[in-house]
């Protein structure tokens, strides 16, 4: 078993400045009256500043209880929880919670308040002035991919499930807390929206580098999002705490092996990110550009479509060439259903997205949804084939090295 205090190297480096705080749990225990066994029994681990750590495990293993003890929604029976070395039990509980973002399933928005008012909840409690709150609301809506001019004054009932969850994330970030807690944040949305929200979180984290603790029941989500994964057994006993790569390559015991499940080789492929493969630039144009040069470029490249960008280089539409008429301009329509991939999306995500695309490829975006290029089936399949071949070569080499002299000659 990996020691709770072991700090394995994260699988991928982030580029932003770390704004998170180190989180330490030392022999944290929770006992409920009337129950013989502890819900959480002496849980000890360190969560490095600026990383996403995913808590996974079977139902009743104590993962949500462990999460809620961090902001004292559940009071620990014993043990110490520290944020940057400060014992949380020595702080006023209301003050503590205003310093920790909390995002739950469905966003949990106040239905009688607008989007802007929901996001402003904690800054108001902290006494921020109106101008500062307004600027923060606008900044956060932009960060989570919602146009402030269109969404700030809407009410939760006027939003889709995915939009509500984005607002929930923005509200959790409102007071710029160093630690964000997430409890099954994407569990109530459809698979396509779930993938978009996961990508959005990775994009935000790349920029902000908060310390994020997230509970999920989905090992694939944990593999995609986590810098590290904490796999818990009953009583919040640590089965393994390590990077996704190490957990897949070397499960600590049979429990972890069973929990990760069959097809771990395929799960290894899901560690590969879109940013790891070569993208094509495709044909792009700005809304309002003359159509003739765009048509000429598209025909020269034998492209079937044109990605339309706004003034901030964000994709707003993907149109067929027949939609561009000679002598006209590129339309400025915004396709609300345009599906894009963040550069931190997995290749499995890319394949899923391309299966629903009429272009046989997908649009890839980076920081603040800026356009990076296109990814297609051939690129993904070639990369996955190369990974499989490399893995097989490593297995063959290991088996050859372990064979006896007679076997090697045979």
Write up this protein:
The protein has 410 residues and is an alpha/beta fold. The protein is 36% helix and 20% strand. Strands 6-7-8-3-9-10 form a six-stranded mixed beta sheet, sandwiched between helices. Helix 5 crosses helix 7 and helix 7 runs parallel beside helix 8. The longest helix is centred in the last third of the chain and has 26 residues. It is flat, with a radius of gyration of 24 Å.
From the structure above, extract its key features.
16 helices; four-stranded antiparallel sheet; six-stranded mixed sheet; 410 residues; alpha/beta
- Measured by DSSP, the beta-strand proportion falls in 15-25%
Give the termini separation.
38 Å
Mean pLDDT: 88
Estimated helix fraction = 25-40%
The value of Rg in angstroms is 24 Å
Largest sheet descriptor? 6 strands, mixed
Shape: flat
pLDDT < 50 stretches: 1-14
Content-based structural category: alpha/beta
Strand count? 16
Tally of helical runs: 16
Order of strands in the sheet with the most strands? 6-7-8-3-9-10
Which helices and strands appear, and what pairs or packs with what?
Elements: E1 23-30, E2 40-47, E3 52-56, H1 63-70, E4 78-83, E5 86-87, H2 93-98, E6 100-104, H3 115-119, H4 121-125, H5 130-143, H6 148-151, H7 161-173, E7 179-183, H8 191-208, E8 211-215, H9 219-225, E9 228-233, E10 237-242, H10 244-249, H11 254-260, H12 264-269, E11 284-286, H13 291-300, E12 305-309, E13 315-320, E14 340-342, H14 347-355, E15 361-365, E16 371-376, H15 377-402, H16 405-409
Parallel strand pairs: 3-8, 3-9, 6-7, 7-8, 11-12, 14-15
Antiparallel strand pairs: 1-2, 1-4, 4-5, 9-10, 12-13, 15-16
Helix pairs in contact: 5-7, 7-8
